[in-house]
Amino acid sequence: MTLNAMGYFRTVGIVMALAAVTGACFAASFPDYPILKARDCAVTTEAAGVTIGVQPVDDLKEQKEYFNAVLTSQGFVPVFVVLQNGSNGDSFLIDTSKITYGSADSEIAAPKVGLRKAAAITTFFVPFVGPFAAAKIISGPLQVQQNLLKKGLESTTLSTGASAHGFLYVPVPKNAPREKIRLRVPITKAGTNDTFILDVAF
After folding, report:
1. Strand, helix or coil for residue 105
2. Is the C or the N end of the chain the one with fewer CB within 10 Å?
3. Co-location of 168 and 122 in the same domain
4. Alpha-carbon dihedral angle through residues 86, 88, 92, 96, given to the nearest 10 degrees
5. Cα–Cα distance between 76 and 129 in angstroms, integer?
6. In this structure, are 25 and 49 located in the same domain?
7. 50 and 126 part of one domain
8. How confident is residue 19, by pLDDT bands cut at 50, 70 and 90?
9. 98, 19: one domain
10. Hey, how many other C-beta atoms are within 10 angstroms of the C-beta on 156?
């Protein structure tokens, strides 16, 4: 083997080693949030065999640990959501674009489409800001935004015995104590127009 060839393979080896170390550091910087069962979360409710559990991550140290960012100071609270289908043979559709939030003291009314400011939380039930939008709004390195997307709750179909989990990034006031929030998650029975609401406050 020539000296040039040896130098080439040495360089490739160094680059690959650096890439492996960088990847390991990235993974270590964004640990996965502990996956909880729905009934082990802070707040749970159930209807038609579907159980939802929500675990708001208000602790700033935990936000820094799992997101490498303090989201509350940027106007969001990350809320870990677990959905489990314990029905007898039914499948259900989860459409995250139809999830709404509002003050726990608000009257339950039709969502007011188009109101996305955090101030609206005190009066209306409005569509939450999805992971993609939150990643665009929350400042930080690209890796932080990618991590927000990766951890976000996605629309899915829950077959019998299946579960889904992920974060919702709910807008909150930046410089004031968080009010109690009510989250409303529409659940539709697959193949029908039958929809019910899982309603939780935290």
Report:
1. coil
2. N
3. yes
4. -10
5. 9
6. no
7. yes
8. very low
9. no
10. 16
E strand or H helix at 66: helix 60-67
Domain that holds residue 17: 1-30
Residues 125 and 55 in one domain: yes
Q: Are 52 and 82 in contact (CB under 8 A)?
A: yes
Task: Output DSSP code: residue 15.
Answer: H
Check pLDDT > 50 for residue 27. Answer: no
State the maximum Cα–Cα separation within the chain, in Å, rounded to a whole number: 78
Q: What is the pLDDT of residues 141-191, one digit of tens each?
A: 788 888 988 999 999 999 999 999 999 999 898 888 899 999 999 999 999
CB-based burial, 54-66: b 16+ in 10 Å, e otherwise: bbbbeeeeebeeb
**Domain shared by 20 and 39, yes or no:** no
Alpha-carbon Rg for the chain in angstroms? 21
User: Quick one: 158 and 193 in the same domain?
Assistant: yes
Task: Give how many domains the chain has, as a whole number.
Answer: 2
Question: 3-class SS at 95?
Answer: coil
Report pLDDT for 144: 87
Q: Give the count of alpha carbons within 13 A of 164, CB side only.
A: 20
